[in-house]
Amino acid sequence: MSDAVLVLIEPEEGRIGLVSRQALTLARELGSQVHALVLGTGEEAVLADAADYGVAVVHEPDDAELGAYAAAAWASVLQSCARATGAGTVLAGGTPRGTEVLAHLAARAEVPMAANVVQVTSTQPLEVERQVAGGAVLERMRLEASPAVLTVAGHAVEAEPAPTPGEASQRRFTAGINADDLRAQVVRTGAGPGGDSTGLAAARVVVGVGRGAGGAEGFEDAARLAERLGGVVGVSRVVTSMGWRPHHEQVGQSGTRITPDVYIACGISGAVQHWAGVSSARTIIAINTDEQAPMVTKAHYAVIGDMHEVLPALLEALA
Amino acid sequence: MTNVLVCVKRSADITGEVVLNQDGTALDGRFSGYAMSAHELAALEIAATIAENDGGSVTVLTLGGADAVEQLREALSVGAQNAVHIQADPTGFGPTDVAREVAEVVRAHEAGGTGYDLILLGNDAADTGNFQTGIRLAYALGRPVVAGVQQIEVDGGAASMHVGAADGTETYEVALPAVATVLEGGVQPRYPSLRGRMRAKRAPIEQADPATEPAGTAVLGLRVPPAEPSRVTILGEGPEAVPALVEILRKNGVEA
User: Fold this and answer.
1) Minimal Cα–Cα distance from B80 to chain A, Å?
2) Which among A260, A185, A17 has a CA at the least distance from the CA of B160?
3) Do B172 and A185 touch (CB under 8 A)?
4) A113 class by beta-carbon count within 10 Å (0-12 exposed, 13-18 middle, 19+ buried)
5) What percent of chain B has pLDDT over 90?
């Protein structure tokens, strides 16, 4: 196996995003020379983060065509970077973009891809364990082709800076984008027809509501509590599939993944798919009638009771 | 007239407790039941709406064992008119194998005079979670592809595809023919009507055999991770627990 490993990193608010830092941490197990391709622009802080995480070279294409996101175009850049560096492994965080670009790369290079890897179980030959069935099951998979292509499941690996910082030398280059790779490109970004879920991702307090709401009229207290605590309401999948609340409020694997300081889960049983989207909350409080519910057993704190009795009492205490 | 092909997969229902088969190589749905995924139901809804609006058609396709006919009939009851069943044990087929088999059917139908303007798949399979079959299919056919699409409108020879992102909704304008992988949540799948159910029962299903021996998956085995030990502190029962709850909120820096 080659010593070089290439990581597709996604900047977030000028820094390297958390899931990308987790991918960089895992990458150091797979090769001694870590290269990074920045999906976007590498500002000073991105370079500083890259150095902290042991990156030797930060690759930055300057093609104007990359201004609007196109997965195939990025995959072509990633593929040429992989060739140039001789990377034996190419990885990215298991975000929607990371997963999409790596799937394109795997299709172009005609090699397998392992999605949502949680750990490397062997490097010779390369074997990984990855999440399947929404995280309920772990699958062991062998990756024999070169480059090995994988995404790292969000929050499966603790992001840790390298013991010795990397050089993070910047390599600007023009990749040359093929017109065919721009056939599917973002032409505009705006408030979608379904509403906006931006608030949830950034909220410091989220009041989650599930089946325990009982119906479309059962959200008033949760909304008042969210307002009182300076937070927002998030809901479970049951709630949106019943049509009680719109989808952009959904939290979980197929909704928004949240990272608040406090998550208060009211009447939510805590299916694996929901847990996948909330487990990064710093403190999790469950309010549920069933003390055996996964949401209760996995939470830090729990109140056993009906949300329709507990929330009014809580609002009164806070009044 | 837009002809849409929707690819679906019969998988063990994973919304409840997940059980593995005896040799730990696949999920066992004998107790939980089998279903197509929420992403695929959303894809069918998108397809049915597009076809209804412009007089096109919806064809549903699956690669699976004999039982998978159940999912094809379900799709036929919610707006698909035609169904194709590639009969094979799906556990031996990796994402590349499945993509190649679907591409074979698409080419064969095209040669027979039925082309597909739009091919929809789920963003990821509920059981195997590979997140790549649709993208591999697009490459096999040389078509553009967008992943994680929640809504699509077709106008003439192009489709507007909408993808939910952290800072709003991203829109792609893609010339047809194209491929999209669908993420649930942008549309409300319809319930089958009585007429739809009756039609689904009688509809003929085209049978096909895999064109190529599958290369297979590189899966070595599955395991259900042990439950993490509970760390919960029970604050109390009902409204009596409220003072303790308020204290916890304040301790965690919430302005309560």
Assistant:
1) 22
2) A185
3) yes
4) buried
5) 84
Nearest-Cα residue of chain A relative to residue B224:
A137
DSSP single-letter state for residue A145: S
The percentage of chain B sitting over the pLDDT mark of 70, rounded to a whole number, equals 99
Nearest CA in chain B to A240: B185
Give the tokens for residue A130.
């990855």
pLDDT of residue A1: 45
Contact list, B42 vs chain A (CB under 8 Å): none
Residues of B whose CB is below 8 A from A312: 239
Task: Please name the member of B15, B221, B233 whose beta carbon is closest to the beta carbon of A301.
Answer: B233
Q: Which of A5-14, A34-43, A188-197, B62-71 has the lowest mean pLDDT?
A: A188-197
Question: Given B39, B127, B233, which is nearest A133 (Cβ)?
Answer: B127
Of B26 and A267, the one with more pLDDT: A267
Q: What residues in B contact A230, CB-CB < 8 Å?
A: 254-255
Residue spans of alpha helices (H) in chain A: 18-27, 44-52, 71-85, 96-109, 198-202, 220-228, 237-241, 272-278, 294-298, 307-318
Confidence of residue B81 (pLDDT cuts 50, 70, 90): very high
Which of A138, A306, A317 is closest, CB to CB, to B243?
A: A317
Residue B23 pLDDT level (bands cut at 50, 70, 90):
confident
Instruction: Give the sign of the dihedral formed by CA A83, CA A89, CA A95, CA A99.
Output: positive
CB contact under 8 Å between A189 and B171, yes or no, is: yes
Residue the block writes with tokens 């009447």: A267
Sign of the dihedral defined by the CA atoms of residues A27, A33, A39, A43, in that order: positive
Nearest to B238 among A71, A286, A309 (CB): A309
Residue A123: other Cβ atoms inside 10 A: 13
Asked if A135 contacts A272 with a C-beta cutoff of 8 angstroms, the reply is: yes
Vertex A110 angle, CA B136 and B60, to 5°: 20
Q: Give A304's contacts in chain B (Cβ within 8 Å).
A: 234, 236-238, 241
Q: pTM (2 decimals)?
A: 0.91
Q: Which residues contact A195 (CB under 8 A, 6 or more apart)?
A: A246, A247, A248, A249
Model confidence pLDDT, tens digit, residues B203-245: 999 999 999 999 999 999 999 988 778 999 999 999 999 999 9
Which residue from B94, B163, B185 is facing A254, i.e. has the nearest CB? B185
User: Which positions in chain B touch A107 (Cβ < 8 Å)?
Assistant: 132, 135-136, 138-139
A203-238 pLDDT, tens digit each: 889 999 999 999 999 999 999 999 999 999 999 989
Find the mean pLDDT for residues B113-138. Answer: 97
Q: What is the pLDDT of residues A292-307, one digit of tens each?
A: 999 999 999 999 999 9
Considering only the C-alpha atoms of chain A, give the largest distance between any 2 of them, rounded to a whole number of Å: 64
